[in-house]
Amino acid sequence: MGGPDYAELCQLYARYAAALDAARWDEWPEFFVEDCLYKLIPRENHERGFPLATLMFESKGMLQDRVYGIRETLFHDPYYQRHVIGAPLIHAATAERITCEANYAVLRTKLSELPTVFSLGRYIDEVVVTDGGLKFASKLVVYDNELIANSIIYPI
Amino acid sequence: MDGAEAVFPDEMTWPAGDVGRVPFLAYTNPEFHKAELERFFYRDHWCYVGLEAEIPEPGDFIRTAVGERSVIVVRDDEGAINVVENVCAHRGVQFCRERHGNRLDQGFTCPYHQWKYTLQGDLRGVPFLRGLKRDGQVQGGMPPDFKTSDHGLNKLKVATRGGVIFASFDPDVESLEDFLGPEMLGYFDRLFDGRMLKILGYNRQRIPGNWKLMQENIKDPYHPGLLHTWFVTFGLWRADNKSELKMDAHHRHAAMISTRGQAAAAAPAEVTQVSSFKASMQLNDARFLDIVPEPWWKGPTAVMMTLFPSVILQQQVNSVSTRHIQPRGHGAFDFVWTHFGFEDDDEAMTQRRLRQANLFGPAGFVSADDGEVIELSQMGFEQKPFHRTVAELGGRDAADSDHMITETLIRGMYGYWRKVMGL
Ligand SMILES: [Fe+2]
User: Fold this and answer.
1) Measured CA distances, B318 to A55, A56, B161, B350 (Å)
2) A72 and B229: CB-CB below 8 Å?
3) pLDDT tens-place string over residues A39-53
4) What interface predicted TM-score (ipTM) does this complex get?
5) Which residues of chain A does B100 touch, with a Cβ-Cβ cutoff of 8 Å?
């Protein structure tokens, strides 16, 4: 297979989870290359071939715009997220690129409330080697939730 | 200070003629909710069930809901659209569990006792209908006077227009055209002008608030410029945009029609009234707002229609969708977004619609916060059901308007609600 070290890939996911769970939103776009794709898509659309995503960002700039929205414009009930990401499964790897997927669960805790299972699904990712380490060229977040618990504000 | 009254009143007190101060009880009382289902969702009204483009081929079906009742929308072998209730005529099993599929060859079968139905909902097979012959004797079977023709699925009345499917449990419901009324019909036909629709996909969310709050939300032009600061920040919404509010003769349906100003020039503070507004803010990626006017708009850049009780029809610049309201008890509803495009869209237009969909839906820049405030409204109602809202912006009556600084459409809706509910 070659390509980057598996531990390094695991570290990428661990860092991603840690940044989001700590609400360090400014770091989120930095996990992606400039010309990236981030899609949060219901399993239904994904499996039936419908192109609509709940969120579809096609550049790092769009991710930064989302961060601005979270910070400045989107009113929402505040909450904590806790990502639990499974071991990534590598489908293909070259020296520069890994195609892989990983299960995830996001537990949510609203202030003054008990935690709930907020989002469940899997990441289908393209990871590339850059001078700044491994980054996502593409991240498809395919969620199982048949219904979103009201709204999704923060990145998954 | 309020609170001298009983916190949990037995009866709703609402001065005659008032439509602007809606008792919280209207959102919290389970008995009212049942009456609403019967009077608005199951009688006298047409409810949205889907788009023809979702079931293009003979045998195609979707499972959806009218109010809180599960129904199947299916295209039969002759191309006609049937809507049947998803409850077996035998022992009441909600037999259809798939959300979509094709049943051209098999029809529908209840798993419990294998009762089989045609795509029109007629009963066509009952195992052991005439019993079991054994040793020259017939064992069991249905009584001799049992007729399969008496035991079809519950068939709803169906109306389609411009590719949109409506259904009603009420055989005596007026025509869809009369139900919508001429003014609403005009805006309906503007969007659904006969072109084939292309389904882009779904978003589904459960919002923990009374279903009427979603109707109110899209009858409320007071909030977008205040709650949805994203709209304001990036020039999509200005309170002084050219706009109109229109209702049908009953005031149950409404349209908010607005036309975005030419230059997204910095709005003066008295127009935004949003403290966090930053006039200098620019998008990093302007493609979110890559708006290309389309001929069918005939002017307005946004038309938001509320068809009472079941659906919202959205045109916000290039993003078009239906938003289906499916109540789940008095305190919650499921909200199903079906985004679509048109047959003559080129690839760039499809991408544009998909990209602008980022603004809407359960995570949208300007829709996620609607769900959030609806949840918080319901929380407020539940804690003091003796109290009431104040929807008196722009006056205390209900009439069409040529500006947005009014809650007139909400008052119109509650005038209708009071009449139908007899409250
Ligand atoms: Fe809104």
Assistant:
1) 16, 16, 21, 9
2) yes
3) 999 999 999 999 999
4) 0.96
5) 48
